[in-house]
Design a protein that fits this description.
single chain; Ribosomal Protein S5, domain 2; seven-stranded mixed beta sheet; 9 helices; 29% strand; binds adenosine-5'-triphosphate
Length: 285
């Protein structure tokens, strides 16, 4: 096989707990994540001649080392000391710097595709380790299903049961830097010990609101108050549990059906110029 097309899904964090700042300046977190059907599309082609070429549909994104898809390909070729090269076509559908993990998912998908194309048969743990060198969220996308992640987000703590739910997502069209949000939070040093049990998300949507939590929401709202406005609109549109996604600024809400999610998307974005998406959680990426 020389060519492979794969979808790179976005994610939502149903819970994101910041446990504190670490001596290495990263933050220790515990987060419950699911991949969703909103996805970028990647075609990866194995080439006999050396070099990496990336074509990306998003004009604002770099196509060299600064792009996580490119960086993933470079790392894979280097780690396996491969002589050939790779051609990548990336169609972006996930909004950029939106808290939905798009760049990390692209990187994980390139690693997965190259492992298949070069028949390197890497165990999932080895792929996750390679991914962790690219970004904290990359190992989650290697897992590709609901999971609780710890450390700086790169450590798989537990795989979650499948969750079937419709979502409405609203993005104000303004990027928000993850680093800036963490800085705004001003957390103390990581507490030792702490809560060890891992609650599972409820299957009953009416109970979802009590489960949702995102410690990054307060600092993100201080930087971008429009996040609060989007939350109000989604509540008013009838979504069951509403939360900011990751480091924001995208906000998502749970809906009972696809039709309800479509309706909420229309109501929430009316005359605001916000972007909206309807998606569902994935049981397997
Ligand atoms: P994170 O929390 O990891 O920042 P995010 O979902 O908020 O994730 P991304 O869409 O992954 O944000 O983009 C974060 C930054 O990474 C952007 O500023 C962008 O310039 C850079 N980037 C590099 N490669 C990509 C890519 N393939 N897709 C999206 N962004 C990328």
């Amino acid at each position: 096989m020389e060519r492979l097309s794969l979808r790179a899904p976005a994610k939502v964090n149903l819970r994101l707990e910041v446990l504190g700042k670490r001596p290495d300046d990263y933050h220790e977190i515990k987060t419950w994540m699911y991949p969703i059907s909103l996805a970028d599309e990647l075609t990866v082609v194995r080439e006999a001649s050396a070099g990496i070429s990336l074509a990306c549909s998003h004009p604002g994104l770099p196509v060299k080392e600064e792009n996580l898809a490119y960086r993933a390909a470079a790392l894979f070729l280097k780690e396996h000391a491969l002589a050939g090269g790779v051609r990548i076509k990336l169609t972006k559908r996930i909004p950029v710097a939106a808290g939905l993990g798009g760049g990390s998912s692209d990187a994980a998908t390139v690693l997965k595709a190259m492992d298949i194309l070069w028949q390197t048969q890497m165990p999932p743990e080895a792929l996750q380790e390679m991914g962790a060198a690219l970004g904290s969220d990359v190992p989650f996308f290697i897992v590709g299903k609901g999971a609780v992640m710890g450390g700086r987000g790169e450590r798989v703590m537990s795989v979650l049961p499948p969750l079937t739910a419709w979502l409405v997502l609203v993005n104000p069209g303004v990027p928000l830097s993850t680093q800036q949000v963490y800085q705004q939070g001003k957390w103390g040093l990581t507490k030792q010990g702490g809560e060890t049990k891992i609650p599972k998300p409820p299957q009953d949507l009416k109970k979802m609101g009590d489960f949702l939590r995102n410690d990054l929401e307060r600092p993100a709202r201080e930087l971008l108050p429009i996040i609060g406005e989007i939350k109000e609109k989604l509540h008013a549109a009838g979504a069951h549990g509403v939360l900011m996604a990751g480091s924001g600024p995208t906000v998502f809400g749970f809906c009972a059906t696809e039709a309800e999610a479509q309706q909420a998307a229309r109501e929430a974005t009316r005359a605001k110029g916000w972007l909206s998406f309807v998606a569902h959680t994935l049981t397997e990426a």
